[in-house]
Amino acid sequence: MSTLTPAPTRPPKSPEPAGRSAGTGRVGGGLFDPKQMIASFPDALRKLDPRVMVKSPVMFVVLVGSVVTTVLAVMNPGDRFGWAITAWLWLTTVFANLAEAVAEGRGKAQADTLRKAKTDTVARRLTGTGEEQVAGTDLRVGDLVVCEAGDVIPGDGDVVEGVASVDESAITGESAPVIRESGGDRCAVTGGTKVLSDRIVIKITTKPGETFIDRMINLVEGAARQKTPNEIALNILLASLTIVFLLAVVTLKPFAIYAGADRQTSLIVLTALLVCLIPTTIGALLSAIGIAGMDRLVQRNVLAMSGRAVEAAGDVSTLLLDKTGTITLGNRQASEFVPVRGTTEAELADAAQLSSLADETPEGRSIVVLAKEKHGLRERHQGELSEAAWIEFTAQTRMSGVDVDGRKVRKGATGSVIAWVEEQGGTVAPDARALTDRISQAGGTPLLVAAKDEKGARVLGVIHLKDVVKEGMRERFDELRRMGIRTVMITGDNPLTAKAIAEEAGVDDFLAEATPEDKMALIKREQAGGKLVAMTGDGTNDAPALAQADVGVAMNTGTSAAKEAGNMVDLDSDPTKLIEIVEIGKQLLITRGALTTFSIANDVAKYFAIIPAMFAVAYPSLDKLNIMGLASPESAILSAVIFNALIIVALVPLALKGVRYRPSSADSMLRRNLGIYGLGGLIAPFIGIKLIDMLLTLIPGIG
Amino acid sequence: MSPVLAGVLQLLALVAALGLSYRPLGDHMARVYSSERHLRPERWIYRAIGANPSVEMRWPAYLRGVLAFSAVSLLFLYLLQRVQGALPGSLGFVSIDPDQAFNTAASFVANTNWQSYYGEQAMGHVVQTGGLAVQNFVSAAVGMAVAVALVRGFARSRTGELGNFWADLVRGVVRILLPMAVIGALVLVACGAIQNFSGIHEVGQFGGGTQQWNGGAVASQEVIKELGTNGGGYFNANSAHPFENPNGLSNLFEIYLILVIPFALTRTFGRMVGSLRQGYAILGTMAVIWIGFTALMMWTEFAGRGPAFELAGGAMEGKETRFGIAGSSLFSVATTLTSTGAVNSFHSSYTGFGGGITLLGMQLGEIAPGGVGSGLYGMLVMAVIAVFIAGLMVGRTPEYLGKKIGTREIKFAACYILVTPALVLCFTAASFVLDTPAHSMTNSGAHGFSEILYAFTSGANNNGSAFAGLNADTQWFNSTIGIAMLLGRFLPMVFVLALAGSLAEQTPVPETAGTLRTEKPLFTGLLVGTIMIIAGLTYFPALALGPLAEGLAA
């Protein structure tokens, strides 16, 4: 049963309260430091390679344009205007590369840290007879290796023998050690991490070079980056717009000759017009937006195995959330003692506390705490109960307790305890079953308490164990609902309990007594209805569901099978983060759309700058289109080109940080973004070009 | 009553009439294209052409039907003109030259009806009625069939099947166009349009001398010319001719005929995709552009300055006094925002801006409300583009009507929007690069430029109206405009059907609160903006050198 997340082995790296107030802009941006621009400049120059540039059709056109104007300027070296246009076209190209370089640069730093962890290790491989020393890179899948305190684990694998504390700071950045043990869901170890204590035997599960750390390095460096489906689609649209504008500009030459504006439409001017019209802003920033989106996840300690997964996260319409650890605090807590008729609450509390003293489970501890807080029962010391015989909970007996001073106390599942009382020849209070049913229906877990002493065997009452829903979860789910996302709570509880918690937490639906097969069936059912499903998981039996889900987030504490199956890994192993992942996915898509809209809307102003500049001589009436009152044809064209280049740099921080995102309905989001990036995109260049033109007039020879 | 008030009242009457027929006609068309039943005459037709109307077609099969049918039509119409001289009932007209016969055949098969001939001096009864009028029906029905196939692409899921082309074609003619044409023709005859098979009359003129009057089945051809957004007039003067369009009432009725099916198809669309409100959003987009263009046109035509304009109450040159500025403006906007191309006045004589409005109307892609069928599919492709660009801003990958707009879909939509600008700009530019085509211009400067730009805009967008002033009966214009008309008609259809096929295969995405609401006024505004910006950016330089230079100089 792996739908229950194991208690975190360490606190999440950046604990975020689950219930941050609704309505605050949540997904903030990553940090952006202008120095990164300067540092990435050499990389930007290196990217001028045409073989690299051709991947972005829009920017490739700009590169070709820059080369053409350079040739023209060289042929006519006295043409200051030509040189100015040439310089700014090259800058446009470089700025576009700079955006990508800055985005990648942030990943590079992370990759360097990871590389340090990947020093060549010597593995102690077990052979039939003993052990031999081999290089970590020579390990094969299925090899057994031994690691003792101080050893660096040579490769990814599962612990098959022993238990050890492991320092995983190399990959998670978290210094507190974690426990790794054979069997169960905490058996996975990662190559490059360090064993701090004890001895474990590890079965290698990954080939050298394909280990988790290798994949992480590739991911953060962007080496494995592939264009996502939506990015490809957007590139197609941008390419077709580029072709349209290419046609518009190429055909303009014969039109201009006919109109008598041959001289004003030199190849340099036409190239400038083309570069201004094609969607350079989004073309330049498109890949940076994608890289930055992945990077925002990395900053939250989530590794997405593909950009496709991040994009899918924005489209998710169903979230499967494990109850324990995500919706509830993880452990049930005793909330009240309910005595049967004829017994006092104090008597019940005393028996309950006595039976739980040796119970180190969180439930057991919570009983002791409740008894102390509510009934002032102090904790008895072990010494006082030296001759006590503790009865451990087993799956067969389904109860635990203690035999002390001739008194027997038992607590456990209703059926088992009633059977015990009857077996001891005692009486079962007639209202016992009614009490347990009431608690079950309220979503609690009833623990029946019985005792056998001088009064004979009898049921004393019921302990009400309750799941505690995390604070603020209801608001969060309401928010998700407004975003159009359905939440489904997954729990191993019975339907009654599940229903009560679902209602308390405010989720839309629940899946009770969930087996991995049920979970799989639910995912398939949702997907058949066209929905995209996100889930978290950590166990080996979660792996099929993780693979089936559109966004499968594996916990880093989970098994390697789970990590292999999912398309994201959360290094903090915090299932609540699923909600943030969805928000980052959405923010990525919004940023892409906003800058596309902005880029296209920009063109209107550029026409108003360049068309009158080219044709006002041939048709003086067209000077009326010069509504910005730009000083001269040269300054107008140059201003448009400069604006076009500078807007790229100006928008790099936005592309890297992502546009501000707050969860709300599609309608209000569209209205807001259309206002800012659509209308803003129409107006901003009019102001920008005018300002640049005013500055240019100060330079002699151009204005 | 002032002419402006009269214009507004005419517009209101038109809106009211269109509003009244919107529901019944839209619902009727939805039933026609969804029905399982075949009427008896339809069965005869299927038997005659050897088609099985019940088999579902995937998009390649549907496209093959469209292309095969159109190719046969093209060949038939070409041959009919080439042998006209040998046919009876040809009023003694000779056979048409090859380049003009090709141009005319392409023109009518492509639902364009560009005419480089003088109807009353070239085409006899047989070609007019048996060739051109037939194409007026079937080319319109082809457009509607393709539109319905795209609608089915949105409405259906997990299948690639788009319906049966032959059934859609035949039903479009038999159940929609024919009955409406019969009623419409009677109304036109009642208004005074002629309908006979008489020959050429020599009639004396007031000022001495004689002129020739042709008889002919004019009303029946006139009605389908407007109803099927064809536009090819029986006479060269087109709807300015009193036999075609006798008075103000017939004028208004003809405008109504032009607009009625394209607007009502949005309801058919809403019905078939199961959400009338989605249809209303598309209707709203079309209506905003149409009313906006009409208002602009009236404003610029009434505002004409100068003594001649002021005496006439506005720019009356090239307009019929029986229609006035209002009736002419309404007509010219309706005809260029649809693929009709019929004219009741001469667009070349409009003010600079007025001419620009007719040009821009066509350059938008004729989608507001557009040609029968072609308007709806053109608008839906623009909706796909709008959803793709702006839809990302709600934080989901784009989807429209529950269908994802992915790589395949955007590829087809992007190709669609490339076709007509490429044809218009390249052929116009070629006309100026080459030496001879420019000799066809009868004006110089910006106005002359507009003549050629208009010719190719009209051809590639399948409008068919002419700016007048251009002698288009040359080998260059006959062939290039012919090619532009064919490519401008059928290439987009290829992409539309491919898009439809791709959409029909998808599993629909359920609508949630996070879905872009495409039935809201906000989306209508977004769509209007996208259309204006995409078309505006494409044609702005060309428009600046033609109508803008002219209009701003006034």
From TrEMBL, chain A:
Chain residue ranges for the region called Disordered: 1-31
EC id: 7.2.2.6
Annotated PROSITE patterns: ATPASE_E1_E2 (PS00154)
GO cellular component, one term: plasma membrane
Compartments in which it is found: Cell membrane
Pfam families hit by this protein: E1-E2_ATPase, Hydrolase
Record-listed ATP binding positions: 359, 363, 393-400, 411
Domain P-type ATPase A: 120-221
InterPro entries: ATPase_P-typ_cyto_dom_N, ATPase_P-typ_P_site, ATPase_P-typ_TM_dom_sf, ATPase_P-typ_transduc_dom_A_sf, ATPase_P-type_domA, HAD-like_sf, HAD_sf, P-type_ATPase_bsu_IA
Positions with a binding annotation for Mg(2+): 538, 542
CDD domains for this protein: P-type_ATPase_K
Active site: 322
Membrane topology, record value: Multi-pass membrane protein
Highest taxon, organism lineage: Bacteria
Reactions catalysed, as given in the entry: K(+)(out) + ATP + H2O = K(+)(in) + ADP + phosphate + H(+)
Alphabetical UniProt keywords: ATP-binding, Cell membrane, Ion transport, Magnesium, Membrane, Metal-binding, Nucleotide-binding, Phosphoprotein, Potassium, Potassium transport, Translocase, Transmembrane, Transmembrane helix, Transport
GO MF term list: ATP binding; ATP hydrolysis activity; magnesium ion binding; P-type potassium transmembrane transporter activity
Transmembrane segments: 56-75, 81-99, 232-255, 267-291, 604-622, 637-656, 676-699
Job of this protein: Part of the high-affinity ATP-driven potassium transport (or Kdp) system, which catalyzes the hydrolysis of ATP coupled with the electrogenic transport of potassium into the cytoplasm. This subunit is responsible for energy coupling to the transport system and for the release of the potassium ions to the cytoplasm.
Assembly behavior: The system is composed of three essential subunits: KdpA, KdpB and KdpC.
Sequence similarity: Belongs to the cation transport ATPase (P-type) (TC 3.A.3) family. Type IA subfamily.
Name used for this protein in its record: Potassium-transporting ATPase ATP-binding subunit
Gene: kdpB
UniProtKB/TrEMBL annotation, chain B:
Superkingdom of the source species: Bacteria
Record keywords, A-Z: Cell membrane, Ion transport, Membrane, Potassium, Potassium transport, Transmembrane, Transmembrane helix, Transport
GO molecular function, a single term: potassium ion binding
UniProt-listed InterPro entries: KdpA
Topological type in the membrane: Multi-pass membrane protein
The keyword Ion transport is assigned to this record: yes
Pfam families per the UniProt record, alphabetical: KdpA
GO cellular component labels: plasma membrane
Subcellular location: Cell membrane
Membrane spanning stretches: 61-80, 137-155, 176-197, 249-268, 280-299, 376-394, 415-434, 481-501, 522-542
Family: Belongs to the KdpA family.
Quaternary structure and partners: The system is composed of three essential subunits: KdpA, KdpB and KdpC.
HAMAP family xref list: KdpA
Function: Part of the high-affinity ATP-driven potassium transport (or Kdp) system, which catalyzes the hydrolysis of ATP coupled with the electrogenic transport of potassium into the cytoplasm. This subunit binds the extracellular potassium ions and delivers the ions to the membrane domain of KdpB through an intramembrane tunnel.
Record-given protein name: Potassium-transporting ATPase potassium-binding subunit
Annotated gene: kdpA
